[in-house]
Amino acid sequence: MLKPLLLEEEKVFKDPVHRYVHVRDQYIWDLINSAEFQRLRRIKQLGTSFFTFHGGEHSRFNHSLGVYELMRRILDTFEGRIHLTYEEKLLCLCAALLHDVGHGPFSHSFEKVFRYHHEDWTRAILLGDTQINRILRRIDEDFPKKLAEVIAKTYDNKLIVSLISSQLDADRMDYLLRDAYYTGVNYGNFEIERILRVMRPQEDGIVFKFSGMHAVEDYIMSRYQMYWQVYFHPVTRSGEVVLRKIFQRAKVLFEQGYAFHQEPLMLLPFLQDKVELADYLALDESVILFYMQMWRKEKDPILKDLCARFLDRNLYKYVEFNSRDFHLLPELKELFEKAGIDPAYYLEVDTTSDLPYDFYRAGDEEERIPIMLQMPSGDLVELSTKSEIVQAISGKRRFDYKLYFPMDKVMALPGDLSQKIRERLGVMENVGASRQDYSPD
Amino acid sequence: MLGRHAKIIRLIEIAGEVSGRKKLQKMVYIGKHLNLDFDERYEFHMYGPYSEELTLRVDELCNMGLLDEQMESKGAIHMYRYTLNDSGHEFLRFHEVDFGLGERVIKRMNEENSRFLELVSTILYFHHLPYEEMKAKIFTFKSKQRYTEEEIAKGQDFVEELKALMNKDAGTPLM
């Protein structure tokens, strides 16, 4: 039986969202101090959102500590309601702390181009030759494997899995509150204390007392608002598009044998598709930004232009794209080619399915486990059947398609060609995510 | 542009009709395991590997008027059928999607039902585990489906059959 290994004195981190993050366990303290966890300080939580909301520069380190703190509080509220062993509690706390440890720099765009999943790297960090693995094995030789299963949602205890991965879990609750705080928007807030008070553990997961439904409604509304107002903001998406194109161009140039003035040594394993764990861990956003600074001086006109755009926030503009008008795309591609603007890098449709966030849905063909309310009778009912507010937003599909392009390049074309392209795009004036447009609206 | 969407449309064109969201989810997942060029990210959910991205993409394709989605209700169970319409066929004229021998895999998968494909995709999800552990995972997570050892063996044979179809020498391509 595993015995608690406590610090002589509780440690606290000041946190703007939860006020304090409390650490009592030696293992948790050691994990926070590991090199792989400290690396998360150099990876932003919100990718390119800082282009839109300049406060949104917080890191995955802050978020991971926040999820840990919420999990700690959840476990406190479970005292006397369900018995969890010390090892099970540690599993919950470690899963909360380490669930994002496999994220890389600008991971959403980077993963798309280099085609890997950060979840696989999380697993590799937990199980591989890392400081984190050595700390976890001090708990128990099997502990890293169990933890990897909890994070991958394949652990046998569904309650433990649901605390870190469900439609109302510690991860989502922290990122909504934190992202709202740092971006400065008001609509991401909900009453976390109330939600924690009405959370009830069951064998298969967590449910919420019916009397706390309004707090859960608030959470769903904030998730909905944050989705459309922050995560899917068109300027942020424009930044993602430019970023993706930079990685895409670097990859193509490498494959063509282009001689980089500044050889991207730390990116070579990715370009060669031979990435070892140490290569992955060596990468962070400062490395990527360094190469962008170097590449903006490269000879290749596309790579240097894209890097300058990203660094100087001279992003692409956008127009609404009528998804049924897909015939427009080949026409536009042809016009762009004729104008000497390579459409592979300068024309892009971005859609909602390109986003790593989701919004609440009651569950289709039972794939998604819905949020359940516990009625005074003890019966469980799905949230949207009791809440008109949730019903109003959870059953509706909302779509958003945008076409991104560099307006400055189009405007610089000879009159006829520029006019033709702008006519096809439906824009005769400057629109969208311009250098001057710093407003998030 | 919209290349990821085109791959899903092409899968449905090859299959002719896909019955059930779950079935489509599992076909793409199994296809990915056999190196068919799909991009959707998967996580483990109640019915095995599940991709939120794919769900959204299919919704978009319906919204774009490229796929037809028909819902059939049998009691409390809803089933969605997906077929390609004229716009979908036309869309593919602008996107080159070549699954190569993977076409045979798509057709073969579509001959099976979603319950079996759910088992196969779960076997593949746990393929890195020793057989006994993989079996234990299936019995734990799929207790409601009541899969038997014989079915697991059949699922494993099916994976081998699909791998063989990806092999150039595996007989005449299916029509």
UniProtKB/TrEMBL annotation, chain A:
An example Gene Ontology molecular-function term: dGTPase activity
| Gene Ontology biological-process entries | dGTP catabolic process
Taxonomic superkingdom: Bacteria
Which residue range or ranges hold the HD domain? 60-176
Which Pfam families would you find in this protein's record? HD, HD_assoc_2
Q: What is this protein called?
A: HD domain-containing protein
From TrEMBL, chain B:
Organism of origin: Brevibacillus invocatus
Q: What is the recorded name of this protein?
A: YwgA family protein
